[in-house]
Each structure stands twice: as C-alpha cells, then as structure tokens.
Amino acid sequence: IEAALTDGPLRGRRVLVTSGPTHEPIDPVRYIANRSSGAQGTAIARALADLGAHVIFVTGPADVPPPEGVEVIRVETAQQMLDAVQDALPVDAAIFAAAVADWRVKDAASSKMKKDKGGLPRLEFAENPDILAHVAQMTEGRPTLVVGFAAETDDVFANATAKRARKGCDWIVANDVSDGTGIMGGAENDVTLIAGDGAEDWPRMGKTQVAARLAERIAQALG
Ligand code: CTP
Ligand code: CA
C-alpha cells in the first residue's frame, strides 16, 4: 500500500500548493478576509499526492481540513503565507489556489478596539505582497511550472488572460464566481485553463474532478 501511494508519475517531485483564505488582523479579535472554503486547493493537493508528489500544502484558515499524505503548513496572514512559500522552495511546480487578502490593516491594534472610544474606527490599509507574482517572476530557482487562479465575476476570460500576463505565471485556471453560479462554497467548478499557447474550456464538474484533471496535466507538463 505504501508503494502504491508513493508510486505514480509525480514520484520524486516537490509540488507546492497554497490554499484557503488569509486573515488580516484589525485587532486581536477582528480580521478581514476573502471568502474561501479551501475546497478546490485541498482537492488539488490530494490529487497531486495521489500521483506520488511530495506536496507542501500552505494553507490559511480554511473550512475544510487539509488532505492526508501532504506536508501541512498553517498560516494566518498573507505575509506569513509568503514566508512559508519561500521556505518551501525549491519546488518543481507551484499551484496558487489561495484567496489571499489583497490588503492588510496598517498598524493593527495590539489591544481590542472599544466602541466607546471616540466614534467609528478608521482603518488604513497597506497592500499585501503578491505571492504568485513573486514566485512567477523569480530569476533564479523558479519552479518549472507556476499555476495561478483567477476567480472573476465579470469578463472572466479577458481578466484572467491579462492576469496571466501581468503576473508571469505559466497557466491560469479561470472561473466565474458570480452570484448564481454556486461555485463559491459549492462542490462543483467550471474552469477554463489558460496557457501560453491557448485556452481550454472544461465542462462543469466536481472540484475533485477538476483537481484530478489538473494534476494529470501538471504531471504531463513536468514530463
Ligand atoms: N495571489 C497571491 N498573492 C496575492 C494575491 C493573489 O498569490 N497577494 C494569487 C492567488 O492565489 C491567485 C492569483 O494570484 O492564484 C490571482 O488572484 P486574484 O485575487 O484573482 O488576483 P489579483 O492580482 O489580486 O487581482 P484582483 O484585483 O482581481 O483581486
Ligand atoms: Ca485579489
């Protein structure tokens, strides 16, 4: 059984997966975050491990538990996620499925903000590091394959194609998460895989099936 689990086309490969949201503190009891169950990232990590990869799974506080058989690194903030990703390098492939908060609160309060202290709070924001762009644009030790996600609500294909170019990643997995699609928090996904040499529209299918298909493609790409 051991052998069956570690055998497969990705045996001997190190693959990094980021997943889940990040939480950016406002004070010790409050935070801002993106919506993310962590379901798709978790399914991808599991699918890669099933093909024999050594998976380093860097996850924010997700709803779903991390998969078995992967190396789990739990983080809270975007900055911690970047640090964990840098510690995990070098890897053969890196898949960025996390819904990273774009902004953090500048000078988060170290004690709880109280309602009776001077009216409404004013939060000042700072931009978080772009972890995907950082890795995709590495000049030394860049992973062979860097895959990003683009969850969009409008002009999905155009936005995702522009995102791929801007960030410098090899592939973008684009999906439409607008209201009524049931993708956010649901069991299914409807993705378009955008690569440098074209795009593929995948039929709507379970997140587990999306993960399995993506893992197969990653195994092919790494050869
Ligand atoms: N990402 C990241 N670090 C960030 C922001 C995003 O690694 N600070 C990654 C996500 O994991 C995803 C990809 O970048 O793989 C695209 O994220 P998205 O939020 O769609 O892109 P942004 O550049 O933040 O653009 P937007 O203004 O649409 O949010
Ligand atoms: Ca974003």
Automatic annotation (TrEMBL):
GO molecular-function terms, A-Z: FMN binding; metal ion binding; phosphopantothenate--cysteine ligase activity; phosphopantothenoylcysteine decarboxylase activity
Region (Phosphopantothenate--cysteine ligase): 15-223
Residue positions binding CTP: D102, K112, P129, D130, I131, L132, F149, K163, K167
Signal as UniProt keyword: no
Entry note: cofactor: Binds 1 FMN per subunit.
Family to which this protein belongs: In the N-terminal section; belongs to the HFCD (homo-oligomeric flavin containing Cys decarboxylase) superfamily.
Entry protein name: Coenzyme A biosynthesis bifunctional protein CoaBC
UniProt source species: Roseovarius spongiae
Encoding gene (name): coaBC
Span within the parent record: 175 to 397 of 397
